């Protein structure tokens, strides 16, 4: 089994690590183009072109499924990706986990990039899945870029600014950008109020990994017995490379690296 994931940068790591946990025997193909980040401020046409480039580079490795592990690409480019690649290659998009968050009640905060915050797409998800629940949309300028570069001071500043915009009575935070899942613990700490119940965070990585397996009719766990660890192929800007050093500053990157060496 081979599963490909694409994103502008290292935001694909949480979904890749989730897939590795579900199917440690699966080969993974990680395709990104960090030199073109950020994608959020770009036009829909630009995002679609960049996403297609990452997807085509991944598809050349003949995966069984492609996970679009990027909220911006899912919003702007998913129809174009599916039109080109399906039905031969199932394409799984990433949707902010507003529906499961709303099922637990509220109030809810949705942390997302400035481009996504207030967008018709996000407002539609709130309307469809969070009716009757108090929802606050929280823009997080600079957070994805800081995470991409493991800029700890930048991460702390962006998280603190977003936490200041988050109502104190919020019980649940939706992480509306895949990069944010890499610093989930720091977000939880910043939002948690003293003497309040533990904040619930909702990301998308586990759900999209499970959905990819469902799309190809695969069980979430390998059969009993010895498991041969799956391989890892990294593609940066359309060319095979090694896992970027910045990825190893996050637990999800470390989970991927020891399983098999990247192929150059």
TrEMBL record:
Alphabetical UniProt keywords: Isomerase
Keyword Kinase included in the entry's annotation: no
PROSITE patterns listed in its UniProt record: ASP_GLU_RACEMASE_1
InterPro entries: Asp/Glu/hydantoin_racemase, Asp/Glu_race, Asp/Glu_racemase_AS_1
PANTHER family per record: GLUTAMATE RACEMASE
Protein name per its UniProtKB record: Aspartate/glutamate racemase family protein
Organism: Streptomyces javensis
Lineage: Bacteria, Bacillati, Actinomycetota, Actinomycetes, Kitasatosporales
